Amino acid sequence: MKLIHSEYKQSNMKIWNEVAPRYHKRWASISKGPFQSSKKLIELVGINKGDFVLDLACGTGAVTKEIQKRLQNSGYVVGIDTSITAIKIAKKWNGKKSNLDFVNIDAEKFSFSKKFDVVTCQYALFFFPNAQKALKNMRNSLKESGKIGISVHGNNVPFFDSILDSVTEYIPDYVPPNSPDLDRFGTKSALRSEISKAGFSDITVKEFLFQYNPGMFEDYWKNYIKYIPKPLKEKLNALEYSKRNELKLSVKEKTAKYTKKNGQILFPWQVLISTAKY
């Protein structure tokens, strides 16, 4: 199993290094769709001036940026991520500040000499092959008075499902075998249970339903093709022309109930945000 986890991590890191610039431009640098949750996460976990904060799996620094705004010139925030490319973007986007740092490190293996007041983690827990190890690492990194704030996608995210449900029918190996189930924390009870197992207390899980407009169907489909990583694009391109058209029609059918009279798609986007204490 360790070997499988290792292979998955290497593959995932390669993908993130490739897509990080596109991900940043389309998602992290704007407060649309799921990234409306960044400010909510900071509010709910209750970051105060002077706090020492760790932003775990920080990506290109969306949450880190909000934390630093809250801290201003006080406290300290460290963003960590396994993607070297994402860290480079985060450093450039956030700019140089005396109380801000970014480190390239694994969420399941990190350790710091100083304890944190708060640890945040947005849209990453479901990617960790060993989520318990990452959560326990978070807890071990906290002061005894410390808190965590975690955001995950809920199970009601048709932006993903409208495509993935169809694609996996036409390309059975689209998702590599032994990959973590990305939906496994998509309910309040599942997320609460996982956090509880790691030893946290006073766990709260709040649900938010944001909206996202990817444009008309052709915009949605073209952007999907544009933004997916190379290994998935190669699998899609390997489909026969007729099968690819069938796939596209299947996806279009799934988006029909979210399509307005003017042709614009408006997806609901469920996000769960949990806070807990050491």
Question: How would you portray this structure in words?
Answer:
Helix content is 45%, strand content 23%. By secondary structure, the protein is of the alpha/beta class. It has a domain at 2-154 and 181-211 and 269-277: 3-Layer(aba) Sandwich (Rossmann fold), CATH 3.40.50. A seven-stranded mixed beta sheet has the order 3-2-1-4-5-7-6. Helix 5 (131-140) links the parallel strand 4 (116-122) and strand 5 (142-153). The longest helix is centred in the N-terminal third of the chain and has 27 residues, at 2-28. It is globular, with a radius of gyration of 19 Å. The mean pLDDT is 91.
Which structural traits does this protein have?
10 helices, alpha/beta, 278 residues, seven-stranded mixed β-sheet, 7 strands, Rossmann fold, globular
Offer a quick outline of the entry.
The chain has helices at 2-28, 37-45, 62-71, 84-94, 131-140, 158-170, 188-197, 217-227, 230-237, 241-255, and strands at residues 52-56, 76-81, 100-104, 116-122, 142-153, 201-216, 264-277.
Average pLDDT level: 91
- Sum up the overall morphology in one term: globular
- Cα(first) to Cα(last) distance is 29 Å
Strand order of the largest sheet: 3-2-1-4-5-7-6
H/E topology pattern: HHEHEHEEHEHHEHHHE
Low-confidence stretches: none
Class from helix and strand fractions: alpha/beta
